[in-house]
Amino acid sequence: MTRVGIIGIGHGTFGRRSDATVQELAFEAFRTAMEDAGIDRDAVDASVIGSVPEYHKQRSLAGVVQEYLGLVPKPTWLTEVACASGSAAMRTAWMAIKAGVHDVVAVIGCQKMTELSTPEILALMGRVGEVQWESGFGTTFPGYYAMFAKRHMHEFGTTRDQLLDVAVKNHHYGAMNPYALFRKEITKEKASASEDVATPFQVYDCCANADGAACVILASEERAREISSNPVWLSGMGCASATMSVLSRPNLVGLPSAEAAAAQAYEMAGIGPDDVDVADVHDCFTVAEIMAYEDLGFCKKGEGGPFIEEKQPYIGGKVAVNVDGGLKAKGHPIGATGVSMTYEIAKQLRGEAGERQVPDANVGLTHNVGGIGQYCFVQVMTRE
Amino acid sequence: MFKWFGKVNFTPYTKVSDFAQHLRDGHLMASRCKSCGAASFPPRADCEACMSDAFEFFEVSGKGKLHTFTKIVSAPTGFEDVVPYTVGVVDLDDGGKALAWFGETIGEDDIRIGMELQVVPRIFEELEEIKVYYSLERPGTAWSKV
C-alpha cells in the first residue's frame, strides 16, 4: 500500500476571532495550505472536516465549509471525537488514501468556540464526563484532570511547582508563535497567584477556549512526489480508546488510550520514543503534558515531574515538546488542534520553524487526546 | 424513577432505574449478571463480560478507600448554589468505583487519599421533586433523609 505524505500546510491565527465565521476561519487555513502545496482545487479529491458540532449554531458543518472553500461537488464528511476531532480527520483521510479511494485529500480542523454565551458554555461544561453516574455531581473538565493530578502527586510525588513548570515552558515558546493566542512569557509566581479552578489547578494550569483553523493537504506517495519537493510522511498512525467513565479506568495517573496509540504508531514507523526529536502533545491541563511524557515513553511512569523540572522537554533537552506553545499558550479550538499539531511538526521537519526550530529535527510526533483520554491519536511523522 | 438521581439529571430513562428507588429506601445497590455472575458498580443492565441482558440488584456496603479528589471552584449550570464543592472517587471494597460529593461527616482539611470512606444514600423529599444521591462519609454513617 502507498505511503501518505503531507504536501501542504496552512494555519490561521488562534484566539477570539470576532472578525470571522467558522467557514471563513477554515478558508484562511485552506488557502494557505493550497498555496504551500502549489496546487489548484481541481487536484483535491475530497475533504475531511474535524470539528465538534455543539459549539456551532450551523448544524452539519462539513457542508457549509465545503461550499465556502469551493470544493462542491467533491466528497466531504465530518469527524468528531471531542478534542481529538482534527486527528480523526487526519486518520480518515490517511485511510482513504491508503485504501486507494482518493489520492489527494484536504484535512481541515476548524472551530469557533467563543460565539456561545456564558450560560451555554457553563451548561456544556456540565456534560463533559459520563452523564449518567458522574455529571449529576457537578464534575467539570478541569475537575477530572485535577483528580488525575492529585493522584499523580500522591503516587509519584509530583509537585505543584512541576505542574506550573509546564505552563511556564509552553508560554515561553508560545511567545515565539505568531499564531498563538497568548504570546507572553509567564512566571511561576504569576501562575501560582491566579484564581483556583479545581484544586490543585489554577487558571494557568488550564488551556483556553479559542477560535481557529488549520489545514494540511495529504497525498499518496506517487502524487506527493509529483507535487512536492519536501513531503513529510505519516509513518506511524496509532489510535485507541478508553472508557468514557473514569470509574472504569485501571488507574488515574495516565491515559491507557495514549499508551496503546503510541505503541501502535512506534511499531508502524519502526522507531521508539528515544528517536523522537520534536513532539506536540495534548496539554489541555498541565498534568496532561506530564502524563504524556510518560505515556509516550519519553520518560518512565512517574518521572514526568522531574522530566520537566530538568528542562528535558525544552529545545536542547531530550525531546522538544510543545515548542509552538501547546494548547496552553496557542489556545485550543478543539476541532482544529490535531491538525494544528500536524502543521507544527511538519513545519519543524521541514526546518521552517524559525526561532523555535529544533535543530536537525528528523522524527516528529503528535499526541492528540479527546475528552479525558476516551480517545487518543498518535502520529509519527518523518522526512526523507 | 432515575430522574430522581443527581442534583442535575441528564438520563431520566435507563434499564437500571430501580437503582434510584432503592437509594430512596436507603439501599446502595450494585448489579450482578444472572448468567456469569459478574458484578458492577455503578450498576449496568447488560453484562460487559458475557453480554447477557439478565441482571439483578444486590446491596453493597459502600465502604472503600479514597482514590482521588478535587475541590471544584468553577461550576457548571445547576451547581452555582453549592460551589465550591469537593468530589472524590472511591475504590469500593465490593468492587468498582463511585464518584460523589463529600458529606458533612468529613471536614475539608481531613481529606486524604487512601482514607477509609463509606458511600451513603441521601434523600431530599421536601423539595418539589424527589432528589436522591449518595455522599462520601465516615464509615458507619447512617443513611438519611435530609
- Classify the helix fraction of chain B into a percent range: under 10%
Number of strands of chain B: 9
The portion of residues forming beta strands of chain A comes to 15-25%
Order of helices and strands of chain B: HEEEEEEEEE
Which second-level CATH architecture of the domain at 4-117 and 209-227 in chain A applies?
Answer: 3-Layer(aba) Sandwich
Q: Determine the CATH superfamily of the domain at 4-117 and 209-227 in chain A.
A: Thiolase/Chalcone synthase
**H/E element sequence of chain A:** EHEHEHEHHHHEEEHEHEHHEHHEE
- How many domains of chain B? 2
**Radius of gyration of chain A, rounded?**
19 Å
Spatial gap, N to C terminus of chain B: 19 Å
The description of the largest β-sheet of chain B is:
5 strands, mixed, barrel
Summing up helix and strand content along with how strands pair, one would put the structural category of chain A as alpha/beta
Structural class of chain B: mainly beta
Strand tally of chain A is: 12
Give the rounded overall mean pLDDT of chain B.
94
List the strand order in the largest sheet of chain A.
Answer: 3-2-4-7-1-8-12-11-9-10
Query: What is the fold named in CATH at topology level of the domain at 4-117 and 209-227 in chain A?
Result: Peroxisomal Thiolase, Chain A, domain 1
